[in-house]
Amino acid sequence: MDLLTKIISPIFAARAQKIGLYARQTAMLQEKQFVRLMRRAKDTEWGKRYGYSDLKDYATYSRRVPVSAYEDLQPFIRRMIDGEKDVLWPSVVRWYAKSSGTTNDRSKYIPVTSEILHDCHYRGGFDSVALYLRNNPQSRFFSKKGLILGGSHSPLALNAKAHCGDLSAVLLQNLNPLVNMIRVPDKKIILMDEWEAKIEAIVEATRNEDVVSLSGIPSWMLVLIKAVLKKSGKETLDQIWPNLEVFFHGGVGFEPYRSQYERLIPSEKMHYMETYNASEGFFGLQDDPADHSMLLMLDYGIFYEFIPLDELSNSDNPTSLPLEDVKTGVNYAMLISTVGGLWRYLIGDTVRFTSVFPHKFVITGRTKLFINAFGEELMVDNAEKGIRKACEQTGAIVNAYTAAPQMLLDKGKGRHQWIIEFERRPESLDEFAALLDDALQQLNSDYEAKRYKEISLERLEIIAARENLFFDWLKKHNKLGGQHKVPALSNDRKIIDELIEMNL
Fold it and tell me: Three-state SS string across 112-147, please?
């Protein structure tokens, strides 16, 4: 450990010790968040509407306050953008994280209050470092530079009273100047609007720096890494940045990309740490390098609830559970109430707990991004693991993929159709399809049942995508960079049909 990291580390060690108490303090910490939220919002328009001033317990809260989607809160948020105060949160909110989603062009504007910015998003960044240093006491983290890739658009004025941008852009715009001293590239580069020009500028600005850490979305960071290697003429990234030791990643599942990273960064000292940071809040951190699941962060100004996924899709009045009542092995839709002014908000992600007390989980997909056309309930988590198994067995490397159901009307059944862009194509596409299909049956009993004797589902079909097909689709839809990605699974054929049409 270098001297600077040794001096600074005790600050982070104290926080890591507090996080280590989560298992014993779950109920207390969540109760504290609940009480704080009720107190702070009781005099807002929303708080008065639902009687927050006399709301004392979770049971009453879950009965009295409705589950909300963005469309339910949008009229309130629109007024907040226009400068009204005390609507969903007791202040005028001047910053909004813009999220267009991946399946339509309508923008969502998620309030970024001072509390959610500092007590949640920035605390999540701090805790990422705290847990990393705890697990890697020989780190030289503060002796070098950290490269953060994000902010596909500069913050823009919505009106005279409010600004918006990608979450990463909002975070960078409000970042403590001291952090900028150990971060590259310059803010003016990272906030450039045009993605391809920005990648080129980042390469020029960072290839001669001494980078120790990377932070970003795996798919887009891979684009940058390949651009750096191409510019330098080197084969691996550790030849350019020999002190590189960690990649903090999130936004998409890492497993489909892991083999590429291990090939491009063959250093034994390289570490990977998953984070779960969305426009609505920072929710989870990988606290154990040997365990791919993440620790749910309990003291970030967020109160959590969970709805079993089968109830969400089959019930008009689904049961919601507080954190202490969840079980392992069940797919849940996550509800959040936050110091960002979101109330019983259905964030759209699905999770499955791998342990309780402490509560650790994996992201299994999206409430709207799965395939269940034939009762198979295929989740993104299944798809990612299946792709990884097929790659391991064939030596293939996958850059991007998406899948959707296909009805075979002449046979009265169907199949899943996949379009996959390979970095390294398998020798036999048919063999890859068979291995992927077998892996999905092992991972998902519902899929296996529907595949039995091909009663409902024939074996999946794979279409090989041309180079840069997914990049071109994102570019066409003005979704390059940031947190944008092509949905991995869809229950309809809108996206896959467009990709097939572009696959010339």
Answer: CCHHHHHHHHHHHHHHHHHHHHHHCCCCCHHHCEEE
CA 28 to chain centre: 27
Residue pair 460/436 in contact by the 8 Å Cβ criterion: yes
Q: Give bridge partners of residue 282 from the DSSP assignment.
A: 277
Beta bridge partners of 99: 108
User: Environment class of residue 72 by beta-carbon count within 10 Å: exposed (0-12), middle (13-18) or buried (19+)?
Assistant: middle
Q: How many residues are recorded in the chain?
A: 504
* Long-range CB pairs of 259-262, under 8 A, 24+ apart, other chains included: 259/388, 259/391, 259/392, 259/397, 260/222, 260/397, 260/399, 260/423, 261/218, 261/222
Work out whether strand 461-464 and strand 413-424 pair parallel, antiparallel, or are unpaired: parallel
Full DSSP string of 375-392: S--B-HHHHHHHHHHHHH
The one-letter amino acid code at 77 reads I
Amino acid at 6: K
Q: Are the beta carbons of 195 and 471 closer than 8 angstroms?
A: no
Give the tens place of pLDDT for each residue, 2-54.
877 888 899 999 999 999 999 999 999 999 999 999 999 999 999 999 999 99
List the structure tokens of 288: 């154990």
Which pTM does this prediction carry?
A: 0.84
Radius of gyration of the chain from its Cα atoms, rounded to whole angstroms:
23
Report which of 407, 433, 428 is spatially closest to residue 418, judged by C-alpha positions. 433
Decide if 109 contacts 97 (C-beta within 8 A). yes
Residue in the structure block whose two tokens are 């969305």: 278
Query: CA torsion 467→471→477→481, rounded to 10°?
Result: 180
Phi, psi of 55 (to 5 degrees): -90, 110
What is d(CA 357, CA 62) in angstroms, rounded to the nearest whole number? 23
Q: Report the alpha-carbon distance of residue 252 to residue 384 in Å, rounded.
A: 10
Helix (H, G, I), strand (E, B) or coil at 450: helix
CA distance 39 to 367: 31
- Backbone phi, psi, residue 152, to 5°: -70, -10
CA 461 distance to own-chain centroid: 28
**Rounded-to-integer distance, Cα 330 and Cα 352, Å:** 5
Distance CA 475, CA 488 (A): 17
pLDDT in tens, 300-321: 999 999 999 888 866 777 899 9
Q: How far apart are CA 37 and CA 31, in angstroms?
A: 10
What angle (nearest 5°) sits at the alpha carbon of residue 104, between those of residues 351 and 380?
Answer: 25
